[in-house]
Here is the input.
Amino acid sequence: MLDLQTLIDMRYQVVAVILFCIGFATLFLHPNLIKKVIGLNLMDSAVFLMLAAVGYIDGGKAPIIVDGITDASYYINPVPGGLVLTGIVVAVSTTALFLALIQRLYYMYHTLNLDEILLLAKRSEHY
Amino acid sequence: MIYFEFLLLIFLIFCAVGTVFTRNLLSSIIVFMAFSAIMSVIWLLLESPDLAITEAAVGAGVDTILFLVTLKRIHALKGTEKDEK
Amino acid sequence: MKNKSLLHRFVDWVNGDVADDRPGNIRTVGSLPEAKPPKEKPEHTDPLRHLNRQIAAYRVSAVLVCVSLMLALTYTVLCLPTYNDPSAPTNNEVSQRYVEQGMEETGAVNTVAGMILDYRAFDTFGESTVLFTATAAVLFITLSKHTKEWTERGPFADSSKDPILQVVGKILLPMIFVYGIYVVLNGHLSPGGGFSGGAVLGGGLILASSMFGQKKMVRVLSANVTTGLSVACLLAYAAMKGYSFFTGANHVGWEIPKGTPGDILSSGFILPLNICVGIIVACTMFSFYSLFSQVEEE
Here is the structure.
């Protein structure tokens, strides 16, 4: 199943999976909070790429009906486009929320490293 | 055309890896901006011009600005240290 | 007590009556628990060792989760229907109907706009509410006694008048605003719509704010004004779509005018809904920036 032709045919999906895994690993493993937010954004982009690639049909045009042609096979699938369009804007608002929280954490602990923040929080709890 | 797609996709992965492994936060954010710009070209190749406009305005514009303002506020940008003067 | 079944003991454990059957423990279920002698806590002497061990365990398990997820996702993707396949299960009768009858049923030439603003308008209403809620959350988080002052020039040029910013901004700003307004107003006829055009307008507002300075910009578009605009647009959206839903979601008794390319005032409710969404998105982007760039006074 895993041959080169399959990989070439499924290039967008494979790249989406690679991006998702890079973002996931960053979100889990990088100690810097800003890098964690960037990893979350990479995951978002990967999901959007996956959705848009699923809706693409070879030779299809963008779903804007100009010449009166209302044949579904002439256009690409409009459903993933609509989903991704709203998703991109919502991703920005979640990013802004995380960044505001990060600023708050920085004011309290004066560091961006999550491990150091945990250590400082534990220390202030005990002493 | 398929070679162009491969070029863009490989560049996308390079940008993602570079964003993660760059030590300087400012350059990491700039690379992420490049990632968004490539992403908007890919949306055009996938015949979704709506997404291309949104990604170019949001990913390369507003998102980067928000990250940069955050870096400014946490004094991580060079030359903007408040007590440095 | 020894004869109690496993289920009973479990019920007791859930209820908080600890039944400890070890020999030497004379405590019964009904009795009050004795005051235990305070155990000397080993972590009190070294509180950080425990945490460090936790962090190491977290790292190892995170690597395991990442690798397993990677394998699972790669396997799944290779089993999916191939890219470019017109007979894939995603290209079903839903998208067919949206393309073939969307123009008659919604009046929008741009099928994506017709889909997100008519067939799935409730979903878009939720998304706009998410944007508004995110603004409110950022406002709550960044609001404090120390962040009340805005600088004269914005966060990136507070030392002097930056000539690059001024010259380039003067050229770019009118173009950005014209393009954004065009994209919002033509959302039903060409690519774009409320979300895209609103993001472009928000970027333009951010550029204007860093050109003219936060103080001047706040006089025009303060937090109250952006919040009021967002709420007004949300209510207008709700009123329009509510009317549409209560009249049977088909605009009963009202032939939907079909969109004609080049004619802005066509295709029914899509244009005002696009304007509402665009204003909400632009206000959200700008208020994120203006909330982030408040300067803390020390």
Q: What stands out?
A: Chain A touches chain B at residues 11-12, 15, 18-19, 22-23, 25-26, 30, 32, 34-35, 37-39, 41-42, 45, 48-49, 52-53, 56, 60-62, 76, 81, 84-85, 88-89, 92, 95-96, 99, 102-103, 106, 112 (CB under 8 Å). The mean pLDDT of chain A is 86. Helices of chain A lie at 4-9, 11-29, 33-55, 78-109, 114-126.
